[in-house]
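In response to the reviewer comment on reproducibility (Comment 2.3), we provide here a single inverse folding case reported in full, input and output, so that an independent group could reproduce the run without further information from us. The structure tokens appear first.
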């Protein structure tokens, strides 16, 4: 396949979207685009991102999506939220690009937990579920919106009075038996022939906003694999999907939900060797895919990440060596990342240092190519850094005194090593 395919991720500001981005942004087969309904972190991640698309349930959504598709010449749309998945799948015949999705019936069944439970009625891995408060034999029970995601609105209910109060808010809820045991997400992949190619369980050890922010891959569990196989028989999945199970008081796994989309923490499985968002595209393009998994245990843990945007305009980067490019006897990887970004953007890189030893030899010792720099300048006794700094530049040095001298003499932006993160561009 010679030409790259243009892939639009919508909405581009979800954790699902960021996993799709991370899975695809380095692929030689893909050119990524994003679209959002509101300003969000997507603009720091997607190099090409359209804002202002109406929400899927708002008027004008179809027309706006088609305008974005036409403007960016999009080949495929990758949904990154359950509501967007359902809306885009329903609109597939009227959209100007193909949607990466499972069949509509599967998407509709999985979007509503009550409908999921009804469709799977009789399966021995279902939790007990109840039509209303009168049907509940004992407490506690577990209440969750029938249409929802990320555990939003889900909670334990300890009495009939508490249940009736919750049900009175008008939301359509699923009422299930309370499952006190461990919870797992199971990443799956079904190819275009309907064959289930992967069932990969992982833990949900710490949850934030319904997303597993600490997770580790788990050994194969025959009971969990059997649930995945039965779901795959009953529902028609295509590509990446997942389901969640929780153990009851007796230790048996019970199904909480299934979703025919990429999961936000699927990066754990990707880093074992199964890039499910990319394999889903390969399968859609008619390729016979294969999986090559590494067996070692991995743990994923995530926290808030900070990215910056600035209005700097410069042509040169002056950078120090000691305690700047080299920190504690090691290469400063974050600074090297920025220097390569700047070089790729056509900026001049000048190494400017008072290094007491032979600078070029020490560059070689740390395996840093001298060719990275336009110039390598080692100051002589009595020389000052501002004497070498030209306009339209930025200056990076760990020394406050050096930064102050350059700032006062040259009037350019100056950066300590802890500020380099604000210079990085994460968009691709």
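Designed residues, in position order:
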């Amino acid at each position: 396949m010679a030409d790259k395919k243009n892939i639009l991720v919508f909405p581009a500001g979800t954790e699902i979207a960021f996993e799709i981005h991370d899975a695809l942004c380095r692929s030689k087969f893909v050119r990524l685009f994003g679209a959002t309904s509101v300003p969000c972190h997507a603009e720091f991640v997607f190099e090409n991102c359209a804002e202002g698309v109406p929400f899927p349930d708002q008027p004008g959504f179809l027309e706006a999506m088609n305008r974005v598709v036409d403007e960016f010449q999009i080949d495929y749309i990758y949904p990154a939220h359950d509501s967007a998945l359902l809306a885009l799948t329903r609109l597939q015949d009227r959209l100007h690009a193909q949607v990466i999705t499972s069949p509509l019936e599967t998407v509709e069944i999985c979007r509503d937990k009550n409908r999921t439970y009804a469709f799977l009625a009789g399966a021995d891995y279902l939790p007990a579920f109840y039509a209303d408060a009168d049907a509940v034999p004992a407490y506690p029970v577990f209440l969750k919106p029938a249409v929802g995601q990320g555990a939003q609105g889900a909670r334990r209910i300890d009495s009939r009075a508490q249940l009736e109060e919750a049900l009175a808010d008008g939301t359509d809820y699923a009422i299930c038996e309370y499952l006190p045991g461990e919870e797992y997400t199971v990443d799956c992949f079904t190819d275009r022939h309907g064959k289930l190619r992967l069932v990969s369980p992982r833990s949900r050890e710490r949850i934030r906003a319904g997303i597993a922010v600490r997770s580790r891959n788990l050994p194969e569990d025959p009971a969990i694999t059997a649930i995945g196989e039965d779901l795959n028989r009953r529902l028609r999945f295509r590509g990446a999907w997942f389901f969640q199970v929780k153990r009851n008081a007796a230790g048996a796994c019970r199904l909480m939900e299934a979703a025919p989309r990429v999961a936000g923490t699927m990066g754990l499985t990707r880093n074992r060797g199964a890039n499910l968002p990319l394999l889903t595209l390969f399968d859609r393009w008619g390729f016979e895919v294969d999986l090559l998994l590494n067996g070692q245990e991995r743990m994923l843990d995530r926290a808030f990440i900070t990215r910056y945007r600035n209005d700097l305009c410069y042509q040169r980067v002056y950078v120090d060596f000691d305690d700047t490019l080299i920190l504690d006897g090691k290469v400063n990887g974050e600074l090297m990342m920025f220097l390569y970004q700047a070089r790729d953007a056509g900026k001049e890189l000048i190494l400017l240092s008072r290094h007491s030893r032979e600078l070029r030899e020490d560059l070689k010792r740390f395996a840093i190519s001298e060719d990275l720099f336009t110039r390598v300048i080692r100051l002589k006794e009595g020389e000052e850094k501002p004497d070498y700094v030209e306009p339209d530049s930025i200056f990076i040095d760990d020394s406050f005194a050096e930064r102050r001298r350059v700032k006062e003499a040259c009037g350019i932006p100056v950066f300590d090593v802890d500020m380099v993160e604000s210079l990085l561009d994460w968009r691709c």
